[in-house]
Amino acid sequence: MATGKTTEFVHPASVTSWRSPVDFYATLTRVIDALKQHGMTIFADIDQSAAAASAGLALRPTRLLLFGNPKGGTPVMAANPHAGLELPLKVMVWAAAADDVRVDFLNPGPSLSALYGIDASQAAGFGGVAKLFEVALAG
């Protein structure tokens, strides 16, 4: 667990947030490695702090990864094409402070059921993805 000042921000219940025991780039590497080791495709790696810098603005180190496995997402989108707005899955690595690096995972399961009528048992499977981040950060 990282030490130092903790910065807390409001986030919805569908977001799970962990503090990383390592620095920003080591955390990002752990997250990417965990995704690849579990057969996930990384569809996009968005450097939001670099995008901010290109607009002349400053933003803490922040990377958003869009990822998934077509075997999991395709049946959901086949059941309701609008559910594709919730997919692919998203995880963000960001630094609240130099010694306070976070990993946030947006679990779309509750939204898929409540908003798109996706069977709850099918939508619940997306929540299991959180475990791989938990394990990656513990290592």
TrEMBL record:
**Which residues are the signal sequence here?**
none
Q: Which residues form the DUF302 domain?
A: 46-108
Question: What's the domain of life for this entry?
Answer: Bacteria
An example of a Pfam family matching this protein is: DUF302
Tell me the protein's name: DUF302 domain-containing protein
